[in-house]
Amino acid sequence: MIKLKIKHLMIPILIAVTVLSILTYVVLAPEYVTYGENVKHYNDSEISFDFPQNWVISDYENPVETLFLSEPDNLTINRHDTISQNTSSSSMNQNNNSAPDIANPTMLTVTISKRSSLTAGITLENAYKLNENYPLIEKTPGYQFISQNVTTVDGVTAYEFLYGDETHIYYDVWFEKNGKFYGIACQTLTDSFNSEKKNFNLLINSFHVK
After folding, report:
1. Shared domain check, 65 and 1
2. What is the distance between the alpha carbons of residues 109 and 136, in angstroms, rounded to a whole number?
3. What stretches pass through the bilayer (predicted)?
């Protein structure tokens, strides 16, 4: 009888220990993305930056998912249409009660790359060619290289490039800091570029290498 009682007692104890272990893992999971009043903030051991609330970094905004992920070398950020929290997903709203609609990404992508070296033949002055789609972009009807400028990101010299075609604009920024090369590649529809430029600048101007 004593052994049977002990056996029955061990079951809830094991369940409690398992639940506690899961909760501990969740609490200790790296929190890469935090939320401010008007922006989100990304932070890892190497870089940090701000970005709009309706932009989403896949996989790295959910603490449960980050338990199983290593710190990324590359990040992909997509903008998502917003929906009212008080309405269905088919009813779009841009007021203060809006939230990202994960099911409806729009045509905006930002890719952040970390590299220990550049590809042979590539320098910061032509780093836009590191875009894996550039050979195709260059052959697209209406393609034009619009501009190249020298700017400053996180206190160091950076190169920004603007190129595209009739439908898409590509805005890339590359710089070197602490022995690594960093690229911020922004892509959006040509008609949307002027309205999105302030959001690209939010990320770029807040970008910090530790």
Report:
1. no
2. 17
3. 9-28
Could you tell me if 87 and 169 lie in one domain?
yes
pTM attached to this predicted model: 0.76
Q: What is the pLDDT of residues 33-50, one digit of tens each?
A: 999 889 999 999 999 999
- Domain identity same for 20 and 101: no
Residues spanned by the domain of 128? 31-209
What CATH number is attached to the domain comprising 186? 3.40.1000.10
**Residue showing tokens 């501009």:** 147
Helix/strand/coil for 176: strand
* Phi and psi, residue 143, nearest 5°: -60, 140
